[in-house]
Specification:
Structural class: alpha/beta
Radius of gyration: 15 Å
Strand order of the largest sheet: 1-2-3-4
Order of helices and strands: HEHHEHEHHE
Distance between the termini: 31 Å
Strand content: 5-15%
Shape: globular
Helix content: 25-40%
Largest sheet: 4 strands, parallel
CATH topology: TIM Barrel
Oligomer: single chain
Mean pLDDT: 78
CATH superfamily: Aldolase class I
Low-confidence stretches: 95-114
Length: 144
């Protein structure tokens, strides 16, 4: 529904992001960085079944690189075969060092190897995508 509305409104492309799906389900955007489910499988599921068939716009896949076992090249191949036009890094790894310590406490789990080690992997995702038929666009954190 949102992809069709974006197309009618003149959008240039659509992003398939887990945060948007969580919001549509009544959740919050911060849920996108919590280990609730496999983000890439989640985006692949609704992106392939709901977004790609409903729009002629290019659809960019929001790929999560927080999983250290993620095979980036394999995912880029799948993203291309499924018909996504591009990829973006999402959720975005960010540094919240400027935020007060108290505010960071809920996110401490993520700094034990997840979010802070994901930045090099996000860069690798974008670099690898540039070597394929998939376009790459970089997302950046609102906290930076």
């Amino acid at each position: 529904m949102a992809a069709r509305a974006a197309e009618r409104a003149g959008a240039d492309f659509v992003l398939a992001l887990n945060a948007g799906r969580f919001r549509a389900m009544g959740g919050s955007s911060p849920a996108s960085i919590l280990p609730i489910r496999n983000s890439n499988e989640f985006v692949a599921g609704f992106g392939r079944s709901e977004i790609l068939p409903s729009t002629k716009l290019p659809v960019f896949f929001g790929a999560c690189t927080f999983d250290p076992q993620l095979d980036i090249d394999r995912w880029l191949d799948r993203i291309s075969r499924w018909g996504f036009s591009g990829v973006t890094n999402f959720p975005v790894s960010c540094s919240d060092r400027a935020r007060p310590q108290k505010a960071r406490r809920p996110y401490r789990w993520a700094n034990r190897g997840g979010i802070e080690t994901a930045l090099p992997r996000q860069l690798s995702l974008l670099e690898s995508a540039s070597d394929t038929t998939v376009f790459a666009t970089a997302s950046r954190s609102a906290f930076a």
